[in-house]
Amino acid sequence: MNKLLPAIVSDIDGVLIRGKSTIPNSDIVVQELLNCHYTNGEKHNIRIPFYLLTNGGGCTELEKANSLNRIMGSNFDRHHIFLNYTPLRPIMNEYQNKLILLCGAGHLTEIAKDCDLRYFYTIDEYSALFDQVEFKQYDDGVIRQYETDIKQRNMEQMKNQQIEAVFIVFDPIKWEESIQTICKLVKEKKDLPIYVVNNDVTYADNFKLPRLAFGTFTNALISILKKEYNINPNIIYYGKPSLNTYKYVQEYIHEKHDNIGNIYMIGDNPASDIRGANLIGWPSVLVRSGVFRGRDNDPQDPGKYVVTDLMDAYNKILQLEGLKVVQ
């Protein structure tokens, strides 16, 4: 009987990089995992499946891989990357012939095309054309460009159709417009599905303290809909720590690789990376190189193992699995 082999899933920000800088030694670990073979004493050509799971987005998986490669000198491909909306691709496929609203910063049109979405408005397009915020100046040239873009997507047949779902695929920047527009749509259709892809309240970058993240927007939206309109919105959560996301990644790994045993999750955010791993039953490895800086374990969402950084996590996994790099 073949011995089961591990897979490794890692967060990006706070584990591999901080901002646009590589965390020391993380590039060495990445190079080994992407390019080396391992031995367990029985087999000598083992490859460890290695994937990245992030609540970041705003671009395609290929764009994210290329961005990481520029920072780290690595050779990630798009199939190594699970962005915040990647597990939503099967759901988006169900909306190919329906009208949807895409919200958030980043390259929304490119994301829509990469997901084969046909009929959509971006939040900027919809707000400017159908739901302008009072007292804001809307540039006529920008509005004409929106109209041209929409016409090129052959949206004529959707002119009088209702929005059937909202996908918030990256951190919204224009909160006032986004919240006003989504609230208006929810008032018209109280069970309107709203898919959100990042539940993090904080994340780590080059700033000394954790930054507020996407989850604060979702909390604000829910609060306003409840307080002002007495509506409990139909929020469908994806992104870490939701089981929807972890199940998608787990199924993908088992579909692509045989004889997988432990799937290790390496992360710096206890409430996101570690909570999701613990919920699904993966061994969780909490690092101190990002959001988490505690001396001991996190009391609310404890990692199974607590180490300093990615290098320590990698060595711990090799030790636990009885694996060595083939020189």
TrEMBL record:
<dbReference type="GO" id="GO:0005737">
    <property type="term" value="C:cytoplasm"/>
</dbReference>
<dbReference type="InterPro" id="IPR006357">
    <property type="entry name" value="HAD-SF_hydro_IIA"/>
</dbReference>
<dbReference type="InterPro" id="IPR023214">
    <property type="entry name" value="HAD_sf"/>
</dbReference>
<protein>
    <submittedName>
        <fullName>Uncharacterized protein</fullName>
    </submittedName>
</protein>
<dbReference type="Pfam" id="PF13344">
    <property type="entry name" value="Hydrolase_6"/>
</dbReference>
<dbReference type="InterPro" id="IPR036412">
    <property type="entry name" value="HAD-like_sf"/>
</dbReference>
<dbReference type="Pfam" id="PF13242">
    <property type="entry name" value="Hydrolase_like"/>
</dbReference>
<dbReference type="GO" id="GO:0016791">
    <property type="term" value="F:phosphatase activity"/>
</dbReference>
<dbReference type="InterPro" id="IPR006353">
    <property type="entry name" value="HAD-SF_hydro_IIA_CECR5"/>
</dbReference>
